[in-house]
Amino acid sequence: MKQFEQADVLNQLPDQFFAKLVQKVARIIEQGHDVINLGQGNPDQPTPAHIVAALQEAAVNPAYHKYPPFTGYDFLKEAVASFYKREYGVEIDPKREVAILFGGKVGLVEISQCFLNPGDIALVPDPGYPDYWSGIAMARAEMAMMPLKEENQFLPDYNEIEKDVLDKAKLMFLNYPNNPTAAVATKEFFEETIHLAKENDILVVHDFAYGAIGFDGKKPVSFLEIQGAKEVGIEIYTLSKTYNMAGWRVAFAVGNESVIKSINLIQDHFYVSLFGAVQEAAATALLGPQDCVTELVATYESRRNAFIHRLNEVGWKVEAPKGSFFCWLPVPDGYTSESFADLLLEKAHVVVAPGIGFGESGEGYVRVGLLCGEDRLVEAADRMAKLNLF
Predict the structure, then answer these.
(1) Is the distance from CB of 24 to CB of 342 less than 8 angstroms?
(2) 269: closest CA among 93, 117, 114, 77?
(3) How many angstroms separate the CA atoms of 355 and 368, rounded?
(4) pLDDT tens-digit profile of 195-228?
(5) d(Cα 293, Cα 243) in Å, to the nearest integer?
(6) Buried b (16+ CB within 10 A) or exposed e, 89-104
(7) pTM score of the predicted model
(8) What whole-number distance in Å separates Cα of residue 119 and Cα of residue 110?
(9) Where are the alpha helices (DSSP H) in the chain?
(10) How far from the centroid of its chain's Cα atoms is residue 139's Cα?
(11) What is the rounded average pLDDT of the residues 162-182?
(12) Cα–chain center distance at 293
């Protein structure tokens, strides 16, 4: 059969590092081993029942069996505005400052295509979510990495960015609570970010995927809470983590009006918005009772406490994460992130994500997801302890 040559841009896409990890895990499972998979970022709890019920009821509405408005229904955008006012005290214009997205990933990929030309630079956290790289590659632009170091609480040090890079930079990605480091941002850091963006004409894209998940009684800060944020950027929020709706593929971008307009323009050429019943269920999630969110965060915090406590008991001295549902753990001496992850998989049958898969500055760490019950997390810690590495 004839093999057609694909476009150059596809050849420039970054390798999917974690596809290799999935293959390794599948091989161990096929051998009949009981594998504890802590390497993924897929929420393990079901979507709350009242949200599912809203979808079921809305699905029979014949109005939703037709094409929805290209930019989404007004009622969902109004729900987004109400959500931001309630949660963060931020005023959002639902008609001009909200774009409905097919999941946060889509927005994070397409934003580069909206604002980067070949040769432009995007500032990218290292380590960071790999799909930032994909959109930049599709735009044929370039990346400048911002190392996230433990000594700086895994926040980028803007003083380390060279002036010629800042001159060419058009876009900056940030993500707090952070994947993979589980770090959180401060208002002072976001104020510094806004100043840098204004001085250098940089669009800030804050990936707020884990915005609901903060521990020890501390709520994560929204970028848009900070004065001047709308002038320089947007925030992308997904319902995947807050409401366990990862498979529903619904998210939104909020903020700078001109950026929202561009997102809606590119989406006009790709989509005809989300199924109306999904939009109605999303509005129910945003406007309805939030007890489910409180309970979910409490579950993750309890899992974190049990897991981190056990790791420290067995001799792996690690810090508890402040947000997200991840732990970012330093590997023992003598191992790389990938060799340590391989050892855990082969000998303990525990899956973790090697830090190198998130960027060069991720070397020396592994990411663990708090996405199974406390008993399994403690068992994973006990299996690791039997390797006598700590």
Answers:
(1) yes
(2) 114
(3) 10
(4) 999 999 999 999 999 999 999 999 999 999 999 9
(5) 7
(6) ebebebeebbbbbbbb
(7) 0.96
(8) 17
(9) 8-11, 17-30, 49-59, 74-88, 104-115, 131-138, 163-168, 187-200, 229-232, 239-242, 257-270, 276-287, 291-313, 337-343, 374-385
(10) 21
(11) 96
(12) 17
Q: Name the DSSP class of 130.
A: T
Tokens coding 41: 């970022």
Nearest to 87 by CA among 202, 242, 232, 229: 242
Give the pair of three-digit tokens for residue 109. Answer: 């990929």
Burial of 228 (0-12, 13-18, 19+ CB in 10 A): middle
Residue corresponding to tokens 């992130």:
337
Separation between Cα atoms, residue 336 and residue 99, nearest integer Å: 41
The helices-and-strands tally (H runs, E runs) of the chain is 15, 12
Pairing relationship of beta strands 326-330 and 142-147 according to DSSP bridges? unpaired
Report the distance separating Cα 239 and Cα 73, nearest Å.
Answer: 17
Instruction: Name the token pair of 74.
Output: 């007004």
Token duo for residue 150:
């433990």
pLDDT in tens, 53-112: 999 999 999 999 999 999 999 999 999 999 999 999 999 999 999 999 999 999 999 999
Whole-number Å distance between alpha carbons of 340 and 35:
16
Task: Specify whether the CB–CB gap between 103 and 267 falls below 8 A.
Answer: no
What's the CA gap between 301 and 312, in Å, rounded?
16
- Sheet of 98-101: strand order equals 98-101, 251-255, 233-238, 203-207, 169-174, 121-126, 142-147
> Which amino acid, residue 136?
I
Give the H/E segment covering residue 204: strand 203-207
Closest CA to 156 of 128, 131, 129, 135: 128
- Token pair for residue 200? 């250098």
Integer Cα distance of 384 and 378 in angstroms:
10
Task: Find where tokens 């019943």 sit.
Answer: 277
Q: How many CA atoms lie within 13 Å of 351's alpha carbon, on the beta-carbon side?
A: 24
